[in-house]
Amino acid sequence: MQLDSTIAAVVTGGASGLGEATARALAAKGVRVAIFDLQKDKGAEVAREIGGTFCEVNVTSEESVDAGFEKARAAHGQERILVNCAGTGNAIKTASRSKEDGGIKHFPLDAFDRIIQINLIGTFRCIAKSAAGMLTLDAVDDERGAIVNTASVAAEDGQIGQAAYSASKGGVVGMTLPIARDLMGEGIRVNTILPGIFDTPLLGAAPQNVRDALAASVPFPRRLGKPEEYARVALCMIETGYFNGEDVRLDGAIRMQPR
User: Fold this and answer.
1) For a 10 Å CB count at each end of the chain, is N or C smaller?
2) CA–CA distance from 176 to each of 133, 183, 192, 229, 245 (Å)?
3) Which CATH homologous superfamily contains domain 8-200+226-250?
4) Cross-strand pairs, 90
5) What's the distance, Cα to Cα, between the start and end of the chain in Å?
6) Using CA atoms, how far apart are residues 19 and 227, in angstroms rounded to an integer?
7) What is the distance between the alpha carbons of residues 35 and 53, in angstroms, rounded to a whole number?
8) pTM value?
9) Which family is this protein grouped under (predicted)?
10) Residue 253 class from Cβ within 10 Å (0-12 exposed, 13-18 middle, 19+ buried)?
11) Within a 10 A sphere around the Cβ of 107, how many other Cβ atoms?
12) What pLDDT, in 10s, does the model give residues 126-150?
């Protein structure tokens, strides 16, 4: 896909981190970018800086997602690109003993459900609705659109406390090929990136010694990933027509240990 001002894109989670870097990279190519996010001030600021459109969207709400696509398409036209970066996580053991009183507790199911709703169902909701819109477009070089999703290395080697997070990201990996096959006859490609440990706002509040330890755990290069590196891989997936149905780790060769 040739990236230029004739192309519109939607980036979920585009107000910060991996999504922001991708929104900026697309805009630098001339693409008209709509940012879906719950961070109103930050999202509006990024959209203003890149000449895009901010849409306050909660990916767990069908009504909110529909309104976001309606606003984005009114501003930029039907998107040919969707990049799903909206997501969150938690760290809770499946079952554990209290250090204080020896009592036993289990993973609260509402907390598990929340992660699935945001990371997995939210991602699929945006894919399905964006793909339906892409079907209305005329194909260019036999192609109507490209979708990039964000999973995590935790999809393959989740750590202690990551049952919900790993399940949600594993679901994103697991649905990539079936969705690519669903859409292959319509000229829409689907790929997924599995990032390792990246220097995003999620880690921004961590103490320096924690950040240093995480960086040291990466085989090479021995540092945290840069959001711009994620963006470059996302753009490669979008621009390369033969890239389809793939799940690609971007992790400096790390394999996560149990903790």
Assistant:
1) C
2) 19, 11, 7, 21, 6
3) NAD(P)-binding Rossmann-like Domain (3.40.50.720)
4) none
5) 40
6) 8
7) 6
8) 0.96
9) Belongs to the short-chain dehydrogenases/reductases (SDR) family.
10) exposed
11) 16
12) 999 999 999 999 999 999 999 999 9
DSSP the chain: ---STT-EEEEETTTSHHHHHHHHHHHHTT-EEEEEES-HHHHHHHHHHHT-EEEE--TT-HHHHHHHHHHHHHHH-S-SEEEE---------SEEE-TTT--EEE--HHHHHHHIIIIIIHHHHHHHHHHHHHTTSPPBTTB-EEEEEE--THHHH--TT-HHHHHHHHHHHHHHHHHHHHHGGGTEEEEEEEE-SB-SHHHHTS-HHHHHHHHHTSSSS-SPBPHHHHHHHHHHHHH-TT--S-EEEESTT------
Domain residue spans of the chain: 8-200+226-250
Catalytic-labelled residue, pool 36, 54, 69, 165: 165
Cβ pair 189, 243 in contact under 8 A: yes
Question: Judging by beta carbons within 10 Å of its beta carbon (0-12, 13-18, 19+), is residue 257 exposed, middle or buried?
Answer: exposed
Do 23 and 33 form a contact (C-beta atoms < 8 A)? yes
User: Residue 209 contacts by C-beta under 8 Å, 6 or more apart in sequence?
Assistant: none
166-210: pLDDT as tens digits: 999 999 999 999 999 999 999 999 999 999 999 998 777 778 888
Length of the chain: 259
Q: Is the pLDDT of residue 152 over 90?
A: yes
